[in-house]
Amino acid sequence: MSDRFSPPRPARSRWTYARAQQRLAPYVFTSPFFILFLVFSLFPLGFSLFLAFHLWNPLDGLGNWRFVGWENFALALGARDQFWTALKNTVWIGLLSGVPQHLVALPLAFVIHQFLRRWQTGVSTVLFLPYITNAVAITIVFGMLYSENLGLLNYLLAQLGLGPVRWLAVPELVPYSVGAVVFWRYVGWNVILYLSGLQAISEDVYEAATVDGASAWQKFWFITLPLLRPMMFYAFTLTIVGNMQLFEEPFIMLGQGGGSGGAGLTSAMHIFNTAFRDLDMGYASAMSWLLFLAIFALSMVNNYLFSRDGGREP
Amino acid sequence: MTSQPLRDAVPAPSPRAPRRSWRSPGRILMGLFVALACFLSVVPFYLMFVWATLPSDQIFAVPPHLWFGSAIAENFGKMMDATDGFALRQFWNSLYIALLATATTLFFCSLAGFAFAMYDFRGKRAMFTFILLTMLIPPLVMDIPSFLVMNNVLQWIGTPRTLWVPGMANAFGIFLMRQYIVSALPRTLIEAARLDGATEFGIFTRVVLPLIRPILATLGVVTFVGSWNNFKGALIMKLSEDPTMTLPLSLRRITGGATNVNADWGATLMMVVLTVIPLLVIFLFASRQVISGLTSGAVKD
C-alpha cells in the first residue's frame, strides 16, 4: 500500500505487450464493478431522485411525468398518509426484536465463550441455522404456531389454563408476534458476531483480572463489555439498518396491508405498496429517500453513542 | 431477566478448582440457558419436517402430532397439483439463478479483490474507498430505481437476469476477497509467476484462484443463500408466471398470500421443506467455513 504510486517503471520505457497488460490489468479487473454500478445503481439512484419530485405512473412510459416540486415529500410528512404510522410500526417492531436480540446474544456469547468453549463450534453452528433460513418458509411455520384455535402456542398456553391468545388478530399484539420471528432469526447471528469479538480479546487480560481477584461478573462488566464495544457498534448497526428495512416477515405473515388495523405495516411495505400496487412511483421514491434519511440518522445516533465517553472508535 | 444466569455465575469460575465447578448451580443454569437457545433455534425446523410428513387434516390436530407421519408422497402430489405441476420447475428456477449469481459473483469479486490486493495503480485508494462507501446505500433505496431500469430502460422484467446480473461484482464480495488476499498471498508469489512469463489473467486463474479456495467457499455460500432466499427481488421484478416463478414466490402463493385461499397445508409444508432443504445441505457442509470467513472479516475491520 505504501508504494502505491510506483508501478514498475523500467529505465527503458519501451512499449511491450507484457508491460502494457500488466499496467492495465488492475483497471480491467476492477471495471466490472464500476460498469455494473453505473448501470444498475448510479443511474437508477439519480432517476429515483428525479422521480421524487414528479408524479409518474410507469405504465405511462418514460417522459410522461409531471413536475410537482416538494409535494411528494410534503404528502409523506403530512398527516394524511400512512408514512408516519408505518415508520412508527417499523421502529416499534425494530425495538421489540432488536433490543432483546442483543440483551440475549451478548450474555449468551459470554457464557459460551467462558464456560462452554469445548462446544463452541457446535453451539454456534446450531445458532447460525435460523439466520440462513428462508424468511418466507420460516414465517409460514411461525404463522402456524400462532394459529388462534389450533396453533401449538395456544395449545401450550391452554395446558397452563391460559389463552387462547389472538396473536395475529389483536393490533397491539401484532408487533410482538412479528418481532418474535425477527428476534428468532437474528439472535444466533449476533451471538456469532459477539463470539468472534470475544475471541479477539486476549486471554492475558482475563488472567490478570483473575490474579487481581475479579469475579466473573466483574470481568464481564469491566473487561468484556468495554473491549467488545467495536463489535457491539458493528452488530447494532447491522440490526438498525436491517430492522428499518423489515419487509418479508410482516408481508408474509400479515399480508400486503399489514394485518388488522395495519399494525404490522412497515415502511418498506408501505413503499412497496405505493410503488407496485398503486403505481405511484414518484411518491414511493420520495418516501424511500425519507426512509434512507431516517436510517442514516439512526446510524449517526448509534455512532454518537458509541464514540462518546472515552469509547474506542471502531 | 436474561442476565440472571450471569449473576448466578459469580462464584463459579474459579480456575483453581476446575474439576468441581461444573456442578455448581450457576453453571447448570448457564448450561440450561445455552441449551434452551439451541433448542428454540431447532424446533421450528423439526416441526416443519414433521408437518410435511403428516396428512393435511392432522397437521393442526389437537393435541398436536409431534412425530413423523407417512404422508410424504401424498403431500408431494398435492404440492405438484397446487402449482399446476410447476413446483420442481420453480425449484430449478431458484437454483439456476442462485448458481449463476454464485459463479459470476465469485469470478468478478475475486478478480477485483485480487487487483486491489496485489497491484499498485493510480486511483486505487479512491476507487476502493468508493466501493466501500456504496455499501452504505440501504438496499431498500435501490428497489424502485432498479425496477424502473429493468422495466422502462432494459425491459428485462420477468426474466432471471434481473436477479443475478446487478450483483455480479458487489462491494461486499470485493471487500471480503481483498481482505483475504492481502493477508493470505505474498506478493513475491505473484512476482515469481510474472517472471515465469504468466499473463496477469493467467496469474489470477492459475495462481490466485487455487490458493483462495476457503474464502471462495465463504462468499459462494453467502451469495447462494442470499440469492436462494431473495423473495422481495423476485416479487419486484415480477417473476410471477408459473414457469418463471422462483420458489419463495410460489411458496407465498400456495399459502394464499395473494388470494387468501390456502391451497392445502400438506402441500404448503412440503414446499416449505423443499425451500429449506438446499439451505440445510449447504449449511451442513459449509457452516464452519462461512462463520469463520464472515466473522474474521468483521474482526479485522
From TrEMBL, chain A:
ABC transmembrane type-1 domain mapped to chain residues: 87-302
Q: Which UniProt keywords apply?
A: Cell membrane, Membrane, Transmembrane, Transmembrane helix, Transport
Among InterPro entries, the record links this protein to:
ABC_transporter_permease (IPR051393), MetI-like (IPR000515), MetI-like_sf (IPR035906)
An annotated GO BP: transmembrane transport
Query: What Gene Ontology terms describe where this protein resides (cellular component)?
Result: plasma membrane
List the Pfam families. Answer: BPD_transp_1
Q: How does it sit in the membrane?
A: Multi-pass membrane protein
TM ranges:
33-56, 91-112, 124-146, 221-241, 284-306
* Family the UniProt entry places it in: Belongs to the binding-protein-dependent transport system permease family.
Query: Know the name of this protein?
Result: Cytochrome C biogenesis protein
Q: Which organism is it from?
A: Deinococcus indicus
From TrEMBL, chain B:
Organism of this sequence: Deinococcus indicus
| GO biological process terms, semicolon-separated | transmembrane transport
Q: Transmembrane ranges?
A: 28-54, 95-119, 126-150, 162-182, 203-228, 265-286
The ABC transmembrane type-1 domain covers 91-286
What keywords does the record list, in alphabetical order? Answer: Cell membrane, Membrane, Transmembrane, Transmembrane helix, Transport
Q: Which residues form a coiled coil?
A: none
| Transcription regulation keyword on record | no
Which family does the entry's similarity section mention? Belongs to the binding-protein-dependent transport system permease family.
Q: How does it sit in the membrane?
A: Multi-pass membrane protein
Superkingdom in the source lineage: Bacteria
**Main localization of the protein described in the UniProt heading:** membrane
Got a GO cellular component term for this one?
Answer: plasma membrane
Q: Where is this region: Disordered?
A: 1-21
- List the protein's name: Sugar ABC transporter permease
Question: Where, subcellularly, is it found?
Answer: Cell membrane
Q: Cite the Pfam families for this sequence.
A: BPD_transp_1 (PF00528)
